[in-house]
């Protein structure tokens, strides 16, 4: 059995962690390197959190066999996906800004929350007078020289703790004095106290020391095929496949800032030896790539190959490939559809993490807008929004006959009368609207008309297996460029490679959606480079941009706004 790790919050972006086996005897470790919901620094590779799971039986974790650990490293820790500063054992406060930067202008204060603010009182040559205020009343003032470090403390629970620290970068003495603050760390003034015995959902705190915070599950966790199970409340859920013991997928809280970097597993290579190196990511190690949980397959693969002692990517060294997989129709009557690439089923593949239908060599791919086996009931006169301007309308229901119309932008494009069990467009139940797309006839929309439900008032019709393809294909031709890569093959799979040498760094755009980040470390005279793929997801751009209003959001490092880094 395998499963998908999920972080749940209402309206959150769904992210998938690694696929894991949950059969009897399996021991699984999820952490910041392989599971993007946990805090992970994309500049240093630092992470604090891990979740260890032991399955004593298929899909069963006995009480005490799930352990969530948050390590304390150099006075910092991660807790439920966020970075915290440790004030003292069991007292932690959220690291709101981590090594960020912003300009501080006279008259435009730095709002720290809970009534605290940092104010620029004035400038004198190469120094600045900074003041911490609480509810607009002075707490403390400091004169800070350009290039010098500073910190400000606040009294919390009777003790003084640092809530802001950084370095005064540049001082600009003009009509509107302004200073730049760099390497800024801001900590919340509302700390969290964690004690042994505290409960977080089905987990209980079992240990709090200067080295770690540990929680264990106090009740057994059972997972069966098709289940969606909460593991750590508001952090990780498991979605189990319907027919295999696999699972994985999670949602991350959006809070106030709705911008996310969703990363895959970090892979580290040694660049000090003379051998070539390679890194490979699939849906198993990069959760934003497409994975069919129901049929247990993935199609996308990202591969990086580096020559020895070369600090760039040679031509053809970066490859993105997606191989179509044939699947049957959910609607049993569609097996008799016999046109081209859609004969008895169709081929699907992932493209930048999204599910598409493959039309064939140089024919492109089309988005699959709808494909499920859920029941839906429509009454006479009711319309069903199918996406991309299409709707399905029930014009009338007479005895065992259903009068249906497919509309595009409120204009009828196809009508049919279905008599369930007797006559239909295909088989005895199915409405089928076909359309030619890029020279290929596709079953653009089909639905199984199950039966007519007659009532004392309006009658309704029960519908199943809706399948709707986009009529706007993404054309993929050899020689076309997407991001840093060029299409080199479109059959029997889609393959893209870099045609020019590339420099790797913190953000290399691979395709239109996939990025590749990296950072270097030197340990014991040996150089290593860590690579990680990621996708950016932005819900509301305004929320992450600095403003000039009194309640401004400072410009910060990516770590503060982006998930999984």
List the topology elements:
Blueprint: E1 2-6, E2 13-15, E3 19-21, E4 27-31, E5 49-54, E6 60-61, E7 66-71, E8 76-79, E9 82-88, E10 91-105, E11 110-113, E12 116-124, E13 127-134, E14 137-145, E15 149-156, E16 159-172, E17 178-187, E18 192-193, E19 199-200, E20 203-208, E21 212-217, E22 221-222, E23 228-232, E24 236-240, E25 246-247, E26 250-252, E27 259-263, E28 267-270, E29 277-282, E30 291-292, E31 297-298, E32 300-306, E33 318-322, E34 325-328, E35 345-351, E36 354-358, E37 365-371, E38 376-379, E39 383-387, E40 390-398, E41 401-408, E42 411-418, E43 430-437, E44 440-453, E45 460-469, E46 481-482, E47 485-489, E48 494-497, E49 508-509, E50 514-523, E51 526-538, H1 558-561
Antiparallel strand pairs: 1-3, 1-24, 2-26, 3-25, 4-5, 5-7, 6-22, 7-21, 8-9, 9-10, 10-17, 10-18, 11-12, 12-13, 13-14, 15-16, 16-17, 19-20, 20-21, 23-24, 27-51, 28-51, 29-32, 30-31, 32-33, 33-48, 34-35, 35-36, 36-37, 37-45, 38-45, 39-40, 40-41, 41-42, 43-44, 44-45, 46-47, 47-48, 49-50, 50-51
> What would you report as the Rg, rounded to the nearest angstrom?
28 Å
The first-level CATH class of the largest domain is given as: Mainly Beta
Q: Could you describe the largest sheet, including whether it forms a barrel? A: 8 strands, antiparallel
- What name is given to the CATH topology of the largest domain? Immunoglobulin-like
SS elements, strand count: 51
Separate helix tally:
1
Work out the count of structural domains.
Answer: 4
Helix coverage percent of residues?
A: under 10%
Oligomeric grouping of the chains: single chain
Instruction: Tell the overall outline.
Output: globular
Intertermini distance? 29 Å
The CATH architecture of the largest domain is Sandwich
Beta content comes to: over 45%
Sequence stretches where pLDDT stays below 50 over 5 or more residues: 6-12, 249-259, 539-565
Protein name: S-layer family duplication domain-containing protein
Pfam families: S-layer
InterPro entries: S_layer-rel_Mac
């Amino acid at each position: 059995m395998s499963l998908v790790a999920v972080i749940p919050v209402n309206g959150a972006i769904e992210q998938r962690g690694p696929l894991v086996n949950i059969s009897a005897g399996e021991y699984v470790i999820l952490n910041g390197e392989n599971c993007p919901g946990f805090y992970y620094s994309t500049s240093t590779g630092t992470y604090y959190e891990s979740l260890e799971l032991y399955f004593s039986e298929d899909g069963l974790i006995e009480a005490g066999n799930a352990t969530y650990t948050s390590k304390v490293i150099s006075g910092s820790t991660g807790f439920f996906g966020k970075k915290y500063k440790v004030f003292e054992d069991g007292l932690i406060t959220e690291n709101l800004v981590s090594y960020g930067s912003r300009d501080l202008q006279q008259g435009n204060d730095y709002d720290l929350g809970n009534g605290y603010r940092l104010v620029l009182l004035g400038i004198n040559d190469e120094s600045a007078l900074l003041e911490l205020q609480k509810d607009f009343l002075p707490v403390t003032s400091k004169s800070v020289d350009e290039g010098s470090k500073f910190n400000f403390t606040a009294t919390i629970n009777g003790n003084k703790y640092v809530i802001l620290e950084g370095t005064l970068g540049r001082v600009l003495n003009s009509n509107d004095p302004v200073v730049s603050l760099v390497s800024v760390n801001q900590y919340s003034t509302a700390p969290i106290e964690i004690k042994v015995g505290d409960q977080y959902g089905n987990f209980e705190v079992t240990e709090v020391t200067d080295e770690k915070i540990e929680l264990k599950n106090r009740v057994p966790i059972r997972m069966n095929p098709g289940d969606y199970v909460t593991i750590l409340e508001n952090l990780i859920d498991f979605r189990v496949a319907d027919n295999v013991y696999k699972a994985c997928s999670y949602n991350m809280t959006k809070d106030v800032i709705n911008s996310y970097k969703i990363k895959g597993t970090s892979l580290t290579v040694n660049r000090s030896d003379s051998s070539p190196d390679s890194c490979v990511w699939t849906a198993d190690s990069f959760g934003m790539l497409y994975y069919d949980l129901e049929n247990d397959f993935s199609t996308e693969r990202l591969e990086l190959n580096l020559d020895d002692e070369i600090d760039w990517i040679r031509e053809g060294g970066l490859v993105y490939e997606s191989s179509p997989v044939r699947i049957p129709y959910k609607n049993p009557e569609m097996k008799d559809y016999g046109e081209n690439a859609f004969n008895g089923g169709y081929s699907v593949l992932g493209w930048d993490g999204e599910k598409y239908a493959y039309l064939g060599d140089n024919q492109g791919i089309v988005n699959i807008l709808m494909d499920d086996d859920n029941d839906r009931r429509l009454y006479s006169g009711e319309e069903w929004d199918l996406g991309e301007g299409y709707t399905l309308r029930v014009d009338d229901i007479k005895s065992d006959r259903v009068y249906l119309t497919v509309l595009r932008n409120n204009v009828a494009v196809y009508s049919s009368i279905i008599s369930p069990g007797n006559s239909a467009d295909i088989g005895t139940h199915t409405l089928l609207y076909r359309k030619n797309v890029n020279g290929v006839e596709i079953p653009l929309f089909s639905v199984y008309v199950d039966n007519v439900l007659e009532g004392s008032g309006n009658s309704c019709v029960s519908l199943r297996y809706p399948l709707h393809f986009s009529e706007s294909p993404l054309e993929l031709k050899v020689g076309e460029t997407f991001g840093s890569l060029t299409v080199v093959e479109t059959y029997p799979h889609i393959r893209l490679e870099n045609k020019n040498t590339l420099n790797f760094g913190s953000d290399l755009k691979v395709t239109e959606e996939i990025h590749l980040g990296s950072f270097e470390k030197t340990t014991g005279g040996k150089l290593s480079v860590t690579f990680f793929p990621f996708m950016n997801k932005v819900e509301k751009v305004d929320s992450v941009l600095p403003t000039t209003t009194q309640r401004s959001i400072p410009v910060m490092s990516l770590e503060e706004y982006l998930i999984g880094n």
